[in-house]
User: Which sequence fits this backbone?
DNA sequence: GGAGTGATACTCGGATATCTGGTGTCCGAGTTTTCGCGG
DNA sequence: CCGCGAAAACTCGGACACCAGATATCCGAGTATCACTCC
């Protein structure tokens, strides 16, 4: 049982996007460079996040990605399910109904007990991920990381972020 | 994130093996036939279970597999980890230390906050599987399944199980 | 008839093909910007 | 000097190769059984 690498990328990207000013966007090229990963492949996952309602995409030059919700309303489970899909990891193939001594169909009205337990475990997993948000990570980093890191990141953000063409006096 | 099909097979096999008399064994051929799955492939997983200390293998004719522990001492987590491996599904590649604005190595003494949360979720998952045993399933089936099913299974067991060459007057 | 011995049949164990899904990459559609031109 | 228009540059979006791990299978190692032979 292995989780795709894209999940890690997605969460880190969401965390970074949460630090930039409201309305601003960041292109995939910059996100990939910031995290030191392949731009082409990251784009694939960003697309999935946009399709899942996690990110919003702004097309054209000066475009990019930005969060579609408030960081506190963005749970880990949302991101994981957007990238990996919401299908359960354990799939019951109802093997109790196969073979020479298969169970009575009447008894199969109730779900398979083994499947129920596996679902219970996955539910506990999901519940934990549901309680944690990108906002939590943001606050945690603010408390633990040295101010120097924030300054560096903020400077890099200013260098790469694209403001919406509203009022913003372009820093460029 | 997808779990291998072998996990389902393994749990069902363990449940079936738990129903046969103490000391008796059941060959892979019979287990595969009972569940309607490929014998060759099931053997691969049974081997993993034996290597993991879940099952004991008896070689030679009249040989087979049997549980290595009491059903109540056999948790779902034991079986899952024996088949799928104990490695965590989410793997942190420390991308915070990559890229142009990588975090200070001093700040990386503490584990990645994102990784910590994913570990916490997986720990909740493991904890749930740790609380459930094959004995629980056995009792559940005893309570819910009609007596007819038990009779059929018991008859099939008598037909296919191999007693240890101790005292047992061969029913054959 | 009984014990010893060899062949036998059946079991598990490991090494070997095949195939799906994750990994990685590319080119095309769409939009904003920008430059040039005309008024 | 200002407005309009076409070309260009940059973005995301979907379609196309590649590779690791799961899936599926086979043949070989080992042992209890069984039959045969000899005593």
Assistant:
């Amino acid at each position: 049982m292995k989780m795709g690498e894209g999940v890690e990328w997605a969460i880190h990207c969401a965390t970074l996007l949460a630090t930039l000013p409201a309305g601003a966007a960041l292109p995939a090229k910059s996100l990939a460079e910031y995290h030191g990963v392949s731009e082409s492949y990251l784009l694939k996952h960003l697309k999935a996040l946009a399709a899942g309602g996690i990110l919003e995409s702004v097309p054209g030059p000066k475009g990019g990605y930005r969060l579609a919700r408030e960081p506190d309303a963005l749970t880990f489970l949302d991101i994981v399910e957007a990238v990996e899909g919401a299908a359960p990891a354990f799939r019951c193939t109802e093997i109790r109904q196969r073979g020479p001594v298969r169970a009575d169909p009447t008894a199969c009205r109730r779900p398979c007990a083994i499947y129920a337990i596996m679902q219970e475990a996955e539910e506990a997993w999901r519940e934990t991920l549901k309680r944690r948000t990108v906002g939590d990570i943001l606050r945690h980093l603010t408390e633990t990381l040295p101010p120097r890191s924030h300054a560096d990141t903020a400077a890099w953000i200013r260098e790469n972020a694209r403001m919406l063409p509203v009022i913003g006096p372009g820093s460029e």
